[in-house]
Amino acid sequence: MSSIIPLSAPCINGNEWRYIKECLDTEWVSTAGKYVNLFEQMIAKYTGSNYAVACVNGTSALQISLQLAGVKSDDEVIVPTLTFIAPVNAIIYNNASPIFMDADKYFNLDADKTIQFILNETVFINGSTYNKITQKRISAIIPVHVWGNACDLDLLVNVCNERNISIVEDASESLGTFYTQGKYCGKHTGTIGAFGCISFNGNKIITCGGGGVILTDDRKMANKARYLTTQAKDDPVKYIHNEVGYNFRLTNIQAALGVAQLEQLPKYLEKKRENHKQYVFYFKTIDGLSIAKTPEYSNNNYWLNILQIDNDKNEIDSLMCVLEKNGIQTRPIWHLNHLQKPFEQFQSYQIDNARLLVDRSLCIPSSISLTINDIKKITSYLL
Predict the structure, then answer these.
(1) For 7-34, how does the pLDDT look when each residue is reduced to its tens digit (9 = 90+)?
(2) Whole-model pTM above 0.85?
(3) Class level of CATH domain 265-380
(4) How far apart are CA 268 and CA 285, in angstroms?
């Protein structure tokens, strides 16, 4: 395995062992303990959110956030087709239906098409937005900040607020990404909507070995999120439960790992930024291949670098084969969700660019441990 250049491996070189050993020595290993609270406090402070609620993974954070955002059974939720499947599953878990939207040039939800859909294909009646075709209420939207790229939300937020469509941001991949232009300048992704969700899976910029977090500025909603994610205990001594809850709380051991990782986030971000610059530099010399650009209106975390095929000279499968033979791990971007078998029956709207992106994009190694020599090796096989 040492000779393989992985796609996105975790970096464990801080206080991880010491903090986890403390959990084991003190026997605080489950969902209670000082590191859970500390991790939440550190995430809230870093992102600028008033509250952070740690969950077992990013998918559970999305599921609870949609529930708290008011998504009811038989509602509809707008979501991009180009995303990891988690937000779509979270919609289904709430007994709602997805409406799939196209992607913009940064792989994110196409804000212009989404606004067009809301203004032209829905009606606003008695404080709610309804789909003209299905007659169902559209109660929420999930903008996903793909690869760490901040979604363009300036105009979309205004339209959603006017139409009473709750915004739940999927910031799973964008820890460390801040807006630098527009009305949200200085804000972290995941802090603009009613809720934001971040993932700490093993391939993310920092990891808890799993884990996720709900961001919100609403104290009442934060308390309700903690209540629901700890089995909705109204009396933990007599085991009284007045609502259906979930076993979705992060463990102290996972949080300890997360605290140690978060301590190193600034240097991780700097390394990611430098590796992206090196990729851009070396791929300039290769005809027909380039590194996908990031939004000019934000400071990106460069979580994952995407190789784009600019002409018909190369094909994804052949590129993957060449790199795999030489110990370099890659993967195509996700199969579009509106084409996935469980979701084929749901509505999609003018999806064009997302198809092109899938056909011409490849995820390439982006670990924090990636070196310039690794980048030179990767590019040398594609000359």
Answers:
(1) 999 999 999 999 999 999 999 999 999 9
(2) yes
(3) alpha beta
(4) 27
